[in-house]
């Protein structure tokens, strides 16, 4: 831009009708959510809310609730202690970094088995969670579907939807149930 040409002055109103603050430069203006997140990170959320929303208790409550839903604060508010999570074991980090899904699945299965009290207890819990009114043939069918799903590293839901899709295609083709 030459010396004769000067940029046009900025109007005092934003495109949406709000008045602009002349003391703030455009590149210094952050969203309120960004400023709130930095206040949470610094541990100064209460000071921020008092400064930005001094007379609106509903807005403060809404802000705390939304921060809780986003995971930045505990859902019950600031009074609850926030324990720092322990880092995952090194072997899990290595497997995830290498993209080795099979090793990662094996490590997670081993961790789950370690947390369970005993394999017999896990089997008993599975039997108790099952539907007692199923016939033996229905149970065998479900067990076979679960076995096929685990052998092929897919979920039961995926396999069931795939079966439904095949059934619908066959029905459209033949018209038979």
Portion of residues within helices = 55-70%
Please trace the helix and strand order, writing H or E for each element.
HHHHHHHH
The computed structural class is mainly alpha
| Uncertain regions spanning at least 5 consecutive residues | 77-81
Give the overall pLDDT as a whole number.
76
Q: What is the distance, rounded to the nearest whole angstrom, between the alpha carbons of the first and last residues?
A: 77 Å
What Rg, in angstroms, do the CA atoms define?
29 Å
Number of separate strands = 0
Q: Domains counted in the coordinates: how many?
A: 3
Relative strand content: under 5%
Major sheet: none
The dominant shape is elongated
Structure commentary:
The protein is mainly α. The chain has 3 domains: 26-70, no CATH class; 89-129, no CATH class; 131-177, no CATH class. Helix content is 58%, strand content 0%. It is elongated, with a radius of gyration of 29 Å. It starts with 31 loop residues before the first helix and ends with a helix. Mean pLDDT is 76; it is low at 77-81.
Strand-helix topology:
Elements: H1 32-42, H2 45-52, H3 57-70, H4 90-98, H5 101-115, H6 119-129, H7 136-151, H8 156-174
Helix pairs in contact: 1-2, 4-5, 7-8
Please provide a brief summary of the model.
The protein is mostly helical and 177 residues long.
């Amino acid at each position: 831009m030459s010396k004769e040409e000067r940029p046009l002055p900025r109007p005092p109103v934003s495109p949406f009708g709000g008045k602009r603050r002349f003391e703030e430069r455009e590149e210094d203006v952050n969203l309120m959510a960004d400023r709130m997140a930095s206040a949470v990170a610094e541990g100064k959320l209460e000071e921020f809310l008092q400064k930005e929303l001094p007379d609106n208790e509903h807005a403060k409550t809404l802000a705390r609730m939304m921060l809780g839903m986003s995971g930045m604060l505990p859902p019950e508010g600031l009074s609850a202690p926030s324990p720092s999570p322990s880092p995952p074991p090194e072997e899990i980090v290595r497997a995830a970094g290498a993209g080795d899904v099979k090793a990662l699945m094996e490590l997670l299965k081993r961790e789950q088995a370690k947390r369970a009290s005993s394999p017999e207890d896990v089997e008993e819990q599975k039997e108790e969670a099952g539907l007692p009114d199923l016939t033996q043939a229905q149970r065998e069918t479900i067990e076979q579907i679960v076995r096929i799903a685990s052998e092929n590293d897919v979920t039961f839901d995926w396999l069931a939807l795939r079966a439904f899709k095949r059934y619908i295609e066959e029905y459209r083709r033949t018209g038979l149930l």
